[in-house]
Amino acid sequence: MKAFVLKEPGVVGWYDAPEPKLTPYGAILEPVAVTPCSSDVHTVFGGGSRKAPNLILGHECVARILETGDMVQDFVPGEVVAVPAITPDWRAKAIQEGNDRHASAPFSGHQLGRTQPGVFAEKFLIPDADTTLAKIPDGVTLEQALMCVDVVTTGFTGAEYADIKIGDTVVVMGIGPIGLMAVEGARHLGAARIIAVGTRPICRQLAAEFGATDIISYKDGDVTEQVLSMTGGVGADSVIICGGGDEVFTQAVDMVRYGTGTISNVNYYGGTGMLGFPKFSGGRGMAGKTIHTELAKGGRARIERLLAMVKYGRIDPQKLVTHHLSGLDKVEDALYMMKEKPEDLVKVMVTI
Fold it and tell me: Which residue range or ranges hold the Alcohol dehydrogenase-like N-terminal domain (predicted)?
C-alpha cells in the first residue's frame, strides 16, 4: 500500500508498505482527513531517538473503519471516528498506577508515527479499538474532530497542569496551534487575565478570539520584564509553555510568582544538553515554584469529552484550520508547509 515514510533522518518519501494485519482487539482504518504536526517535523528534521527504517509518519487523523477484530465491541466497519494522537496501551500494568502516558517505557503513549506505523498511509492499524477510537457526535465537522485528536488535547493538557484558579493571571508562551488551545483552556478554567506571547499576525488575531486579554512579543522588549511590569513585579500565577527555544524554560521560571506559581510545559525541546534553571528567580532552590512537564492526554474518553465541548458550543477549534489540501499525495506538501510556516498558516488539513 502507498505510505508516506521517514526514509532516513531528514529524508521523507513514498513507500510501498505492507498492509496492516488485524488483531483481536484492533481495527484497520483508512484515513479520511489528516494533518501533519510540528512533532512530525521534529521527527523528520529534528533528530531525536532513532526510528525504524521506512517508518510511516503521522498521528493526527479522522478515519473510516474498514475491519474490526473479533473482540471489538463498540465499533463497526463503516464508522468515521476520531483517532487520538496519544494511544496508550491501556492494558499495561503501570496504567493502574496512573501512569498512562509513560506506562511501558518513556513516551509509550505516543506510538503512532513513532514506534508503530502512523496514519499517513492508505490503511493503518489501531491495536485496541474500544479503548482508543473516539466516536464523533452529530454536528461536529471533520475540521473540529481533527483538531481535537492532538492540538486541543495538548493545549488543554497544558492548561490543566497549570493549576489555574478563578481570577488568575496566566501567561501562554508560544501561540501556534497548541498555544492557542492553551489560551482557550485557560479561559475555560477561570483565568481572568491571559497574556499570550507571540509574533505572527494570524496567531495574535486568533489568540484574542480564543480569550487572550493581552498579547506581547519579544520584538517589544524582554518578555520577562514585560510580564513583571504588567503584574506589578509579582509575576504570573501560571505560565504555560507551548513553543519556543530552550530560553523559554528559564523565562518561565523568571516570570512566575513566588510561593504559588506553577509552570506547565507541553513544549518540545530538541537535541540534548540541559535546560537552564535560574538560581535567583528560582529562589536559590526555595522559590516555591512548581514545574510540570507533560505529554498530552489521550485515549477514547479524553477525546470524546473534548468532542462534547465542541458539540455543545463551548469551543470551536475549526478556526485553527487555515489551509486545505486534497489527496493522500498532498501529505508531503502539507508537511513542508508546517516546516516552513507561511505567515497565514496555523494548521493544514489534507482530505483524503
Answer: 29-138
Angle CA(332)–CA(335)–CA(341) in degrees, nearest 5?
Answer: 140
pLDDT in tens, 242-259: 999 999 999 999 999 999
d(CA 339, CA 232): 38
Burial annotation 110-143 (CB, 10 A radius, 16+ → b, else e) = bbbbbebbbbbbebbbbbbbbbbbbebeeebbbb
Give Rg (Cα) of the chain. 20
DSSP state for residue 112 in the 8-state scheme: B
Measured in degrees and rounded to the nearest 5, phi and psi for residue 2 equal -75, 130
Neighbour order of strands in the sheet with 55-56: 11-16, 2-8, 55-56
238-241 β-sheet, strand order: 214-216, 193-197, 169-173, 238-241, 262-265, 290-293
pLDDT at 49 over 80: no
